[in-house]
Design a protein that fits this description.
single chain; about 110 residues; Transcription Regulator spoIIAA; five-stranded mixed beta sheet; 3 helices; about 35% helix
Length: about 110
C-alpha cells in the first residue's frame, strides 16, 4: 500500500478552526481536503484557517478545491484564510488570483 500523500490535522487558533495540511493536493487528494474543510465550516465559524506550510504540491485540482471550500464557507458566513504559503504554492495561487477571493499569507499563526 502506498503511503498517504495528504495529511490533515484539525486544531483551533484564536477560537477559529485551523486545518493543518501537509503533502500533495491533487486530483487524488483534493476531495479529502474539501470534505474535511466543509465539515469545519458547517458550524459557521467566523473564519476557517488552512495552514499550507507543509504543502509540497498544488495542482489545478487543488485550486478547484480551494474555490469549492471558499464557496461553501461563504454560504455559512465564514471567511477563509490560507497561511504558510510560499514557493511554488504561492506562485500557483498568485497566477490563479486566489487572493481576490480569500486571504493568503506566507506567515504562520497570527
Amino acid at each position: 500500500m502506498a503511503p498517504a500523500r495528504l495529511h490533515l490535522r484539525v486544531d483551533r487558533v484564536d477560537d477559529d478552526p485551523c486545518l493543518w495540511v501537509a503533502g500533495e493536493i491533487d486530483l487524488a487528494t483534493a476531495p479529502e481536503l474539501v470534505e474535511q474543510a466543509t465539515a469545519l465550516v458547517a458550524d459557521g465559524p467566523a473564519r476557517l484557517l488552512l495552514d499550507f506550510a507543509e504543502v509540497s504540491f498544488l495542482d489545478s485540482s487543488g485550486v478547484a478545491a480551494l474555490v469549492s471550500i471558499q464557496q461553501r464557507a461563504a454560504t455559512h458566513g465564514t471567511g477563509l484564510a490560507v497561511r504558510g504559503v510560499a514557493g511554488q504554492i504561492r506562485s500557483v495561487l498568485e497566477m490563479t488570483r486566489m487572493g481576490e477571493i480569500m486571504t493568503i499569507t506566507n506567515g504562520g499563526p497570527d
